[in-house]
């Protein structure tokens, strides 16, 4: 899972298992082009409907990549193993909402500087619990 500000550098990345972490970084960065394409294609419809969930960005042989964009254009990307057929679109959408709410809590912290890497124990715990549900 990762979260990107406007400059598209990650503020938070977490992966399980950790041995393919570089591959996940590459997958997440390449998915940003698809996110930008979907945002520009949706344009005004995205704002009018308040639909933040972009859905499946693209599937690969090993992974499915999902996207979510906040009203302030913060991008969330989630990479899930393709063999995991238990996850439905509603569960992914719910996970993004949970992630967005937790991110909002961090932004409301007066000691957090927007644009800094996210170092929050509460955010880590929430992400870890979501990832354990998926595995």
UniProtKB/TrEMBL annotation:
SUPFAM superfamilies: SNARE-like. GO terms for biological process: endoplasmic reticulum to Golgi vesicle-mediated transport. One of its GO terms (cellular component) is Golgi apparatus. Its main location: cytoplasm. Pfam families: Sedlin_N. Gene3D superfamilies: 3.30.450.70. It is found in: Cytoplasm, Perinuclear region; Endoplasmic reticulum; Golgi apparatus. It comes from the Eukaryota. This is Trafficking protein particle complex subunit 2-like protein. Keywords: Cytoplasm, Endoplasmic reticulum, ER-Golgi transport, Golgi apparatus, Transport. InterPro entries: Longin-like_dom_sf, Sedlin, TRAPPC2L. Belongs to the TRAPP small subunits family. Sedlin subfamily. The keyword Cytoplasm applies. It comes from Columba livia (Rock dove). The keyword Membrane does not apply. Signal peptide: none annotated. The gene is TRAPPC2L.
């Amino acid at each position: 899972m990762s979260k990107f500000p406007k400059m598209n550098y990650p503020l938070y990345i977490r992966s399980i298992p950790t041995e393919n972490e570089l591959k996940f970084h590459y997958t997440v960065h390449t998915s940003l082009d698809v996110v930008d394409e979907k945002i520009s294609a949706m344009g005004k419809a995205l704002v009018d409907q308040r639909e933040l969930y972009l859905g499946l960005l693209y599937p690969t042989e090993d992974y499915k990549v999902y996207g979510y964009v906040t009203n302030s254009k913060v991008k969330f990307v989630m990479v899930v193993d393709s063999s995991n057929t238990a996850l439905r679109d509603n569960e992914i959408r719910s996970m993004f909402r949970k992630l967005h709410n937790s991110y909002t809590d961090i932004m409301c912290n007066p000691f957090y500087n927007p644009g800094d890497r996210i170092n929050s124990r509460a955010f880590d715990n929430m992400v870890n619990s979501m990832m354990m549900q998926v595995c």
